[in-house]
Amino acid sequence: MEELESLKKSLFKNAMKGKWKEVVEKYAMDSRARDMKITKRGDTVLHVAVCDGQVGVVEELMRIISGEEKKGGEENNSKRVVRIANHKSATALHLAATLGNVKMCYDIASVDHSLVGIRNNEGETPLFLAALHGNKDAFLCLHSFCAHTEDRCRRSKDGQTILHCAIMGDFFDLGCVWE
């Protein structure tokens, strides 16, 4: 137990100080770091890296968890890790979509395409959040992972569609893309 708390503190401290090389090394060496919630909000290393705009770090984290499966590790481990949600039920993909970071959206969604349709506490999917915030390129990236028949990618809890959000936010070019 003490060892886990020490790992958690080390990951948090290094991430907050921007010592991402150390974080990635621990993440690669200790598989427990992958699903460890390191903040009071329930964020994992992946959540924090996304929020900090660490594109290269996110890419490396995805490579680590995907590479583990290729080496004969736990099947579907990478999908389990990217599906971890914080206290608002937001995955790292929700955060990347909100920020509009196309590379991070692509890297995370590539691990598990169905993430595009996972809802947070507000009923919002990553695809919906990209549209809501006018992040056209992130929206297009995520849309490419979402089958056109999947309605779950398209509505918030209050019934608003992605098209509604695009129009209300004056993101008319997103509305044109959607059709």
Automatic annotation (TrEMBL):
Lineage top rank: taxon: Eukaryota
Q: Does the keyword Kinase apply?
A: yes
The name this protein carries in UniProt is Death-associated protein kinase 1
In the record, what terms sit under GO molecular function? kinase activity
Q: Which Gene3D superfamilies match?
A: Ankyrin repeat-containing domain (1.25.40.20)
Per the UniProt record, one Pfam family is Ank
State if Ribonucleoprotein is listed as a keyword: no
Q: Which UniProt keywords apply?
A: Kinase, Transferase
